[in-house]
Amino acid sequence: MRPKAEQTRFTPPALDTAWLPDDLLPCVEFHGHLCPGLVIGYCATKLAMQRLGIGRAEDEELIAIVENDSCAVDAVQVLTGCTFGKGNLKFLDHGKMAFTFATRRDGRSVRLLYRPQLLPKGQTMPEEHQRAWTIKQLLTHDRLELFEIQDDVLCELPPRAQCYETIWCDACGERTMATRIETIDEKKLCAACRDQTLPIQSNERKPE
Description:
Blueprint: H1 25-31, H2 36-52, E1 62-66, H3 72-80, E2 89-91, E3 98-103, E4 109-114, H4 127-140, H5 143-146, E5 147-151, E6 166-168, E7 175-177, E8 182-184, E9 187-189, H6 191-195
Parallel strand pairs: 1-2
Antiparallel strand pairs: 1-3, 3-4, 4-5, 6-7, 8-9
Helix pairs in contact: 1-3, 2-3, 2-4
């Protein structure tokens, strides 16, 4: 009998962080570790900002809409300056590795959907090497091929962040943004009490 052919194993070189792009390092520091998800967000953001001809946002001039809550979003925040606190980072719970960026300067926008099937396949390697291999492939692959790109996808930009009045929830007694209060059976309820998503006991507290 002919001996079975040995399966080819590929061992990539160790990932040297000195080789990483300089602007990826702050993303790693913010996120806490280097991983493929973070690099996907990095690549998507770099491509979008180049395509729109924009730099990092100081205020709300740039908008980012993410359709996942993965590691990738941390790179989006660091590179674009879009954050929940400034109101220019929007989260859509679609479970897709998709990112939309828009600029208030001229209303242009671009959506990028990650296409993992375009990375090279067929290599067999130990699990501990897979992460380094994937990161190197992401950083060296043509970004135009890594993503499905749609230009000018937003018909209307999200409104700028606003400050709203806060009122008391009649169930938990906690002050809540007025736009998040719903009146049910003549009671003003916050979303947590309405949906019973938090184990909060009713305080029936009122302002003095």
